[in-house]
Amino acid sequence: MKRKQAKGSTKPFSGLSCHYITGLLAILFVFLSSSLCLAGKRDYLVVTTWGGLDTEAHRIAYFDPFTKETGIEIRAVEAGSGLQAKMLAMQKSGNIEWDVITGDYEFAMINYYKKGLLEKIDYSIVTNVGDLVDGSIKKWGVGSYVEAYLLVYNTNEFKGEKRPKSWKDFFDVKNFPGPRAMHNWGGPVDNLAIAQMADGASTDEFYPVNYKRAFRMLDKIKPHVTVWFTSGDQLMQSLIDEEVVMAVSTDARAKAAIEQGAPIALEWNQAFYYLNYNSVVKNTPMKKEAMQLLNFMCRSDRQAEFTKVRKMTGSNIRSIEYLPNEIARGLLIYPETLKKVFSLLSVKNGEWTTSHMDEVDEKWNYWIAR
Amino acid sequence: MLLVAPLIIILCIFYFYPLLKLFPESLYRDGHLSLENYNHFFRTPLYTFILFRTIRIAAETTILCFLLGYPTAYLMASVRNPRITALMMLCIMLPFFTSILARSYSWIALLQTKGFVNFVLINLGFIERPVRLLYNEYAVLVGMVHIMLPFMILPIYSVLRNIDTRLVKAARNLGANSREAFIRITFPLSLPGIGAGVMITFILALGFYITPALLGGPSTLMMSTLIDQQVNRLGDWEFAGAIVVVLLASTILIVSIFDKLVGLDKIYK
Questions:
Q1: DSSP string, B30-83
Q2: Interface contact B267, partner A, CB < 8 A
Q3: A268 and A185 share a domain?
């Protein structure tokens, strides 16, 4: 009775408090969920790719299989040229919309890292790194695929033993006459390395760049470089049209040109490569999952799939085991070829390049503009 | 006055505001207030060299546009058949409907080694091997003149059209031959149109980006490409800001010199 009374007496109050509590809970819920939203814990990963074939290849080789294995959905967004600006904006606003950045160069990645846009890679989660090529493991990213720069020459012009075999031959216009093609796109440091190699420099002597030595060599060849290409299409066109007898080319573009009928051959001697890295966006709420994806993308079988679609060589040297021999033989990670090539930014004092990029750019631009 | 308000608002938001943000930025280096960016600009030979080249290419474009545009405008103004005038106007305006990108690419298609121009020249027997027409300053000039021409023709045309024809008749009546009448009557009266055309063409050419980037080679590097490099490749907004400010300052300087020589106030009369 007492209890009943007590119950009865508290009823109106308890009813009110019930509403009160529900209301409070509702407010709390809204607040919590909105703050959770701000923290952005999602059930999917947002990953940047470069669009077109690159997006397609990433989706087939990495994203779809990753979703299948882990249940984590992946949304690919196109990064484009405003990548850095967008990442800066995300950090400023605290609304981190992206989780993983794929396929950017060392210089760009270091720049992002210095600006506090990237997480440190957690190598307790990213563990499939034992078979990655030299230069792949960095605190700010993991090597994903490699792009080689090498000498290609016209096979109608140079046959048998009379073919160019080194950068020295590329600069030797007496014994190997004819117009040449070199690139004039972002990052001229490789052209300076090539010039120094042609002058007999060892890889230890590349950095700091000996500008005098490099430009003295380049001065000699400048009149013979008729094509300064700024896009891969331009390079391929000049090879297909046989406008040039030699070129500094990337392996991917050279192979594509051959497929389109260019009478050229690749010389792997003194060839070098750049790595493209994957990394994780700073302060992402999906850090663990992002690291898992990075680890997944190091797998040799996945990288082999990527190579098939994207025609780019994976950073995992064992990915050739999953590729047909005729493809594997043409890749720079093929054991015999791998012995000849080196990572341009991993040689002695390689870190010099990242702090002197603008100086190199200015010297190069001035030299080439005159 | 109220009618100009939208324009002024748009200008303030999309022009003056970014500019006012960029200018203070150019005064910083690594977070410290300094003139290092400007110091660097004038100390490094590259930038002044490219600045003068940009001005030179813009001037060449302007001169070529004038040489091609004036006779065209004169012809249009002297044709008395409105149908023919309309047709000519259409021919000049038509390229405006196509994007600069598409037009620059079509020049690539025309000028490339296996392109139309080389094909015709070889088949007519003028040359034996294809000539390199692309990726040099000539290609850039061709592309830029093509795009800028309407900006030169239209102001000159509108001024020529409004010159009182009786003045020329009077001059002829007083013994001037047609050449003299042109030099002493028509040409001086068309100066405001020329001034406007030259001004617009020159200023637009200074900041040109797409055409030099697509049709040019290493010897046609211009200021806008350098700005793009700083922003997109090096992420150096502070120095990019300094380049923008120097380019803007040089433009203003050149325009004011031009004003002293020709008198811009004539244009607005």
A1: TTEE-SHHHHHHHHSHHHHHHHHHHHHHHHHHHHHHHHHHHHHHHHHHH---HH
A2: no
A3: yes
Closest CA to B266 of B171, B198, B173: B198
Total domain count, chain A: 2
- Measure the CA–CA gap between A214 and A45, rounded to whole angstroms: 45
Burial track A304-333 (b if 16+ CB lie within 10 A, e otherwise) = bbbbeebbbbbbbbbbbebbeeebbebbbb
What domains does chain B contain, in order, with CATH numbers? Answer: 56-157+196-238 (1.10.3720.10)
CATH number at residue A217: 3.40.190.10
Query: Same domain, yes or no, for A153 and A65?
Result: no
Q: What is the mean pLDDT of residues A34-46?
A: 68
| CA nearest neighbour of B73 among B95, B50, B91, B61 | B91
The helix-helix angle for B116-123 and B100-111 (nearest 10°) equals 30
- Is B255's pLDDT higher than 50? yes
Q: Are residues A224 and A258 in the same domain?
A: yes
Q: Do B229 and A361 touch (CB under 8 A)?
A: yes
**What confidence tens digit (pLDDT) does each residue in B132-186 have?**
888 889 999 999 999 999 999 999 999 999 998 899 899 999 988 989 999 999 9
Distance from CA of A329 to the nearest CA of B (A): 34
Query: Residues A61-104: pLDDT tens digits?
Result: 999 999 999 999 999 999 887 888 899 999 999 999 999 999 99
pLDDT class of B30 with cuts at 50, 70, 90: confident
What is the C-alpha separation between A224 and B132, in angstroms, rounded?
Answer: 14
- Residues A228, A364 within the same domain: yes
**A235 and A258 inside one domain:** yes
Q: For the segment A188-215, what is each residue's pLDDT rounded down to a tens digit?
A: 999 999 999 999 999 999 999 999 999 9
CA distance A369 to chain B (A): 5
In terms of pLDDT, which residue wins out, B80 or B63? B63
Mutate which of A112, A235, A244, A370 to test chain B, going by most B C-beta atoms within 10 A? A370
Q: Which domain holds residue A98?
A: 44-145+276-333
